[in-house]
Amino acid sequence: MLEKQIIAEAEYRYIELGEGTPVVILHGLMGGLSNFEGVINYFPIKGYKILVPELPVYDLPIVDSSVKSLADFLNNFLNFKNLEEVVLMGNSLGGHVALLYTKFYPEKVKGLIITGSSGLYENAMGDGYPKRGDYEYIKAKSEEVFYDPKIATKEIVDEVFESVNDRNKLLRTLAIAKSAIRHNMAKDLPNMHTRTAIIWGAQDSVTPPNVADEFNSLLPNSDLYWIDKCGHAPMMEHPDRFNEIMHSWMEKYNI
Questions:
Q1: Is the pTM of this model over 0.90?
Q2: Of residues 233, 226, 222, the one with CA closest to residue 202
Q3: What structural domains does the chain harbor?
Q4: How does pLDDT run across 97-119, given as a tens digit for each residue?
């Protein structure tokens, strides 16, 4: 369904819906635009413009496969769209990219929402990333990402399996994962004063709950929200609750 809504323009592929305050959504390393279907359907009818760019995870040269390169890509995309003040929302690696972009361009970010974000926990990518292997192994690793393993549909497992068995994709995925581990932001966060919502799955096994607590303690203007019976991708497992938290937080701070 969402595939039909993708706009291909210049070197970008993205979804854009609605009018109002721009909310830019950043997917994770093994994630895609469909992970945010609940958010994409909800916010345009609430008076927000939703933009979801495809991050060039598999298109960067190996030497440039890094979190910083993805933050640079985001900056180029926002300049291309002539967007000055945006809300950034990122899951997993997307949260890390959003944090790094906000460090570089705080004046361009009205608000930041991170969920299951890397950037602090050094195993966030390493342990959670399925290595090459047989289909059942990939299926088991994909199911571990969620509290409810049924969320890992055959379509999701097939996509991960294809990615880890494609040498080009695998090399770039591993390069970015290593970059994410190297690019720990613990020293940067106390200097970042952008208003931030941290929305976390209480049973996240990829970036465990203590990671959310640490983000909350290091970011000066942050609010931490928990979603129970939920793993690494709250916007997929509990889309209604996630939207409710995100929307009420934005209204509370007039974002």
A1: yes
A2: 226
A3: 8-252 (3.40.50.1820)
A4: 999 999 999 999 999 999 999 99
